[in-house]
Amino acid sequence: MKKRIISAIVALIISLPLVYIGGIPFYILALLLSLIAFKEVLDLIVKDDYWVRLVGYICFLFLVGASITKNNFDNILDFKILGIVLLIYGTLALIKHRSKEFNIEKCFSLLGVSLFLGTAFSSLIILRNMSLYYFIYIFLIAIMTDTFAHSTGTLFGKNKINEISPNKSWEGCLGGTFFGTLISVLFYLIIVNQDVNLFLLIFITIFLSIIGQLGDLFFSLIKRHYQIKDFSNIMPGHGGILDRLDSVIFIALAFIFFINFLI
Q: Other CB atoms closer than 10 Å to residue 99's CB: what's the count?
């Protein structure tokens, strides 16, 4: 527990000022975290092929880097860059078709991961470009939901959700959703926009809280499939970047559809 608390404090000391400042310092942080997250999945798909990994990093960096200059979600993906990435992966599959390390299935897996995580981290960057408060709002939903889901599940949890994450219960899910929604709605009303439609805000926040918990389960499913406990050990006591941002990634992707209703 001590190790977990210390690593969390160190992470906050490093990241919070950069998130608050925004601009280039935040872009550097976001790109670094996105590359580490990509590496965590890349290590599961392609471990030893240097050239495939290098091409993967370059393509992913282009996908995420394209979002740095954007401040809205009108065109979150640059189709010029997307087209180049698709062509590169297709050509790579042809070049490496005799490789035991990189077959066509792994090519599609790597492409899917690039697009999925690329879109997710691009969403986070664009949200910060739009408003620090939007950024805080989605992180607050994820953190409060997770915190209270754990505490209420520990106290009252009896009915397990499924075998993907045996420690999660329906009671914890409900407790996390309730308190995660309550605290995040209050933050939005007090800090972001007092004139927003309250019922719409509550509905959207409840939905995002549930989506965040689905994100947690989704990444747990990946870990279960590859039989790993954590994606990495970059944060002692917490695991990897994807272990910490699993809920946030799903919430950020879902928030794209609702942001215009809350402006």
A: 15
C-alpha dist (Å) from residue 97 to 20, 82, 93: 46, 22, 6
pLDDT given at position 103: 84
Separation of alpha carbons 214 and 80, rounded Å? 32
What residue numbers bound the domain in which 75 lies? Answer: 1-130
Cα-based distances in Å from 63 to 3, 19, 45, 66, 260: 34, 21, 19, 6, 24
The confidence score (pLDDT) of residue 1 equals 60
Are 239 and 199 a contacting pair, CB within 8 Å? no
Strand partners, 239: 235
Q: What length is written for the chain?
A: 263
The reply to whether 184 and 116 lie within a common domain is no
Reported as a single tens digit per residue, the pLDDT across 162-219 is 778 778 888 999 999 999 999 999 999 999 988 899 999 999 999 999 999 999 999 9
The pLDDT > 90 percentage for the chain reads: 61
What does DSSP assign to residue 234? S
